Amino acid sequence: MKLVFIGAPGAGKGTYAQYLREKYCIPHISTGDIFREEIAKGSELGRRVKEYIDRGELVPDDIVIEVVKKRLNQPDTRNGFILDGFPRTLNQARALDEIVVIDAVIYLNVSEEVAVKRLSGRRICPVCGRVYNIYYEPKPRNDEKCDYDGAQLIMREDDRPEIVRNRYRVFHETFKPIIDYYRNKGLLIEVDSNRSIREVMPELEELLKKKGILRIKPCKPDIKPD
Ligand SMILES: [Zn+2]
Fold first, then answer.
1. Could you confirm whether 122 is annotated as catalytic?
2. How confident is the model at residue 144 (pLDDT cuts 50, 70, 90)?
3. Cβ atoms of 197 and 225 closer than 8 Å
4. Catalytic residue among 2, 36, 160, 167, which?
5. In this predicted structure, what is the pLDDT of residue 136?
6. Cis omega before residue 202 (within 30°)?
7. Catalytically annotated residue among 41, 47, 156, 185
8. N or C end of the chain: which has fewer CB within 10 A?
9. How far is the CA of 135 from the centre of ligand 1 (A)?
10. What's the pLDDT score for residue 217?
């Protein structure tokens, strides 16, 4: 089950990926996470990547491709994987075709209004790091205070409505060529991500089974999407 996940901020990409990772024991490979880890470790790669990020530039294709190639050679990818954050250019998409045969590209399509509501409702506890949402579960029990330690919850700068709208637009500009590329190859599976994962996930798993993409047995069959 070799999958690429594409979705705007607020589409729930992380939630879907986490569910499949836990249930089927396949790795969730996020290039952003790999870069953050390498920077934290202070590795040679981390130092190179940090230079671009500090200048506010994108990490060049050749570095990103090299990192993904190395990661996909690890033995834990044998039964499948979820690629997240890659490819984000046509050049990267073509390079990926040289590295591995992708089974499907899951495009979580969310409307701008739903994305704004999901993200602008998010509140984080500065003390324990728990994440709440004032519109969806888990909601804080009283006001905007943490259920566990009573700390005043905060909103991340990135989650402010005007910033979410901008991130949403940038996503569509960036990913339109990638979405078209995979649609033309017949690999794109578009999911209506305005609905809850509880509704969408069973349908998606059925579809992947029907297409012969989901052939592995769950390692944790009892995990439910929520
Ligand atoms: Zn807390």
1. yes
2. very high
3. yes
4. 167
5. 87
6. no
7. 156
8. C
9. 18
10. 92
